[in-house]
Amino acid sequence: MPDDTLQNEFVDYVVIGDGEETFVELLKNLGNPEAIKKMKGIGYREKGKIIVNQPCGFANLNKSPIPNYGLINVNDYIINGLFPIFTSRGCPHRCGFCYNVAFNFRKHRAIEPKSVLPHIEYLVKNPEISTIQLLDDNFFADFDRATEICGLIIEKNISIKLTSGCRANYLYRFSMDYLKLLKRAGFVEIYIGVESGSAKILNDIKKDITVEQVIEVNKKLREVGITARFGFMAGFPTETIEDVKLTIKLINRLLEDNPSAYITQLMMVTLYPGMELFEVAKQYGFKPPEKMEDWVKFDYEAWESKLYPWLQDDSKKFEFVKEMAYVATWLDAKSFKNFLGGRERLEKIANKLLGNLFRIFIRLNLYGLAAGLSRLIKFVGRQKQLVSPLIKKVPYNK
Fold first, then answer.
1. Domains in the chain and their CATH numbers?
2. What is the pLDDT of residues 263-320, one digit of tens each?
3. Which of 144, 185, 311, 353 is 20 to 30 A distant from 242 in Cα terms?
4. Is the separation of the CB atoms in 133 and 85 below 8 Å?
5. At residue 151, what are phi and psi to the nearest 5 degrees?
6. CB 275 within 8 A of CB 98
7. What is the pLDDT of residue 395?
8. What pairs with residue 193 in β-bridges?
């Protein structure tokens, strides 16, 4: 949305699309307005008029496959031993909620395997890095390329943990031998964006996966010893309370089939300009922000009902989605930490009891009881500062 962005008085220029090459060219020509007018991929204002030049096309990712890490303190970007990189951009799929369709035009472009390996080899020399997170939009979009990278890691005997995302339908097709190859290469965790447990919603958002595939993938990853981390969303324009219940049911099923799996908190769908879901939302009363700064409200953790007019038709719907977001967290109670004064053994017991209790409620369709228990936990959590001094007085032997 370059035109809308340039309406802000504090914005002089916008760089459209891949920015690393265009931005450098812009910096070099800040003192030469006539040169900027001829640049592709630039938007600017001239005498109060907004001008947007022709697009610049995609950047050549193989031109600079390894960032110049000498310009930063790498350790500032390591979180619990994990360091993120990308080896490709874009995704060929058509998910109606994803920016890729509008930004990368469903085109996958990648750094050559022979250039990816030196990048990984450079990073593993840092003793603070134990895991490399592949932040690619779709690392496995090019199956042969992903296979070659894994083969080179094994061939060079590089010892590193890897995490990445992968589509459920890909993993469903992958043989057990291939999953074992990923394990040998270092993959310890794979994130799967499921989004919904409702076949209707999956069809509406053009996810092109099935619930059955997700269930089977969960079992395969459990068998091969790679941690499965599943992501879900709610608040879709065409979604009903029954659809949300199906999502919670699927989360419950995944955790029962594979207790070592992780579930990210159920997030509200975020509307991005240019995506199909953005246009669908308009049909359900959504009004896009008129000012650039108003977009700050659009966050998957915002939980502002006025941003989702279709959820206001039924006053119970928004609250139900919100309650189920917390319930999803408690179903996978592994995140229930530091609640008992950091007493690891007690916390593990509490996690197991809580998770089992929530899963029983969902299995029996007792959503009201699950929501009530969730509210109780939140209340106790808010009283933590009052409770902690009392807990410390309880005798405990590690």
1. 2-52 (no CATH), 69-385 (3.20.20.70)
2. 988 999 988 888 999 999 999 999 998 888 888 887 777 777 788 888 876 667 888 9
3. 353
4. yes
5. -65, -40
6. yes
7. 38
8. 231
